[in-house]
Amino acid sequence: MREEIVTAALDQFHRRGYHAAAVKDITDAAGVPKGSFYNHFDSKEDLAVVVLERYGASRRLEDLADPGTPPLDRLRAHFAFLRDDVVRHGYQRGCLYGNFGAEIVDHMDTVRDAVRGSFETWAGLVEATLAEAQRTGAIRAGLDPAVTAGFLLNAWEGTLIRARTDRSPAAFEAFLTTVFDTLLAPA
Amino acid sequence: MREEIVTAALDQFHRRGYHAAAVKDITDAAGVPKGSFYNHFDSKEDLAVVVLERYGASRRLEDLADPGTPPLDRLRAHFAFLRDDVVRHGYQRGCLYGNFGAEIVDHMDTVRDAVRGSFETWAGLVEATLAEAQRTGAIRAGLDPAVTAGFLLNAWEGTLIRARTDRSPAAFEAFLTTVFDTLLAPA
Q: B142 in helix, strand or coil?
């Protein structure tokens, strides 16, 4: 029953947002009695933290560390995978990290800690990929991999917001062109 | 009374989010009876569109077109102004365009149109600034001003999410360093 609640909550939070999805909406979607919710979770906020973990596991971050593919190709494929997921859902949903970051981190410290940790894990993998690409001369020599990794993730989160607002791939194209053809390109 | 509602709604939406701020919270904050709301607005969504206009007027976009300052200096000052506003509010609130873009544009077409229009106006001013900087050789020659302007705004919106999540200026520093020292820097 706990699993069903987490699965329904991921869909509801991702599609509608944290505040728009009430506990009753989530238990209804899960097909469980509302009263059962508090047998499994201390609060909706507690559920949000579990949902973030579940969401993180769906993002194929492990592909960023695949030794069988050149690092710059892995990075391109990573953003293409994330883009395709948004396009397939009709430019809705976006990234749960960014959505929670925009909607609720100011008010909920446990969610804020979970989002921050998610960004750090993700940024660490991108940083390692950039450092590897830099050692092989595939990206610009002078870039700081840690600073650039953070910048890329942040730029990606804003790109998602714009793609959803426009319901268009233009923001994704601007990201990929600007990042891979100019920012990362060896001088 | 309409003005008081708009002022209170801008504060409530910006600080708490669209769904977290109920109409009654807004009318209470404005010091007006809840029943008066629908004398002035057709819906909460209608109010959100008016609030976006009011918010846009506070962002000093006109400074981007100031002929007395070199274009690249204007662009730096613009992002520094926006950053300082977020830091002064304790890394809370962020940008109302991005917040609405993350929380509600998927579900409300009139708000989506208003956010899209706000981004387009802003991007047009940044594009003109970049084109002017490019003509004077102050930025990289090969960049497309329209694509780059879109990318910068999107990157900025994600930067705000990260700065709020971390309650730290690191995301702002990564944005300013990466954009001005590498991306825009003449080759």
A: coil
- B103 vs A102, A153, A160: nearest CB: A102
Cα(A63)–Cα(A65) distance, integer angstroms: 5
Alpha-carbon span A92 to B103, nearest angstrom: 11
Residue found under tokens 């989002």: A115
ipTM: 0.96
Q: What is d(CA B88, CA B91) in angstroms, rounded to the nearest whole number?
A: 7
A161: domain CATH number is 1.10.357.10
Please check whether residue A81 is in contact with residue A99, taking contact to mean a CB–CB distance below 8 angstroms: no
Same domain membership, residue A93 and residue A176: yes
For residue A22, which phi and psi values (nearest 5 degrees)?
-80, 160
Task: State whether A155 and B150 contact (CB < 8 Å).
Answer: no
Residue A67 is given by DSSP the state: T
User: CB B103 to CB A103 under 8 A?
Assistant: yes
Domain of residue A66, residue span: 60-183
In this structure, are B88 and B18 located in the same domain? Answer: no
pLDDT value for B20? 96
How confident is the model over A128-164, as pLDDT tens digits?
A: 999 999 999 999 999 999 999 999 999 999 999 999 9
pLDDT along chain B (187 residues), means of 10: 96 96 97 95 97 95 93 97 96 95 94 97 98 96 97 98 97 98 95
> Measured between beta carbons, which residues in chain A are less than 8 angstroms from residue B171?
150, 154
Q: What gap in Å lies between CA A151 and CA B170, rounded to an integer?
A: 10
Asked whether the beta carbons of A164 and B106 are under 8 A apart, the reply is: yes
The vertex-A101 CA angle with B87 and B125, nearest 5°, equals 60
Indicate the Cα dihedral angle B124, B129, B131, B133, nearest 10°.
-170
B100-134: buried (b, 16+ CB within 10 Å) or exposed (e) per residue?
bbbbbbbebeebbebbbbbbeebbebbbbbbbbbb
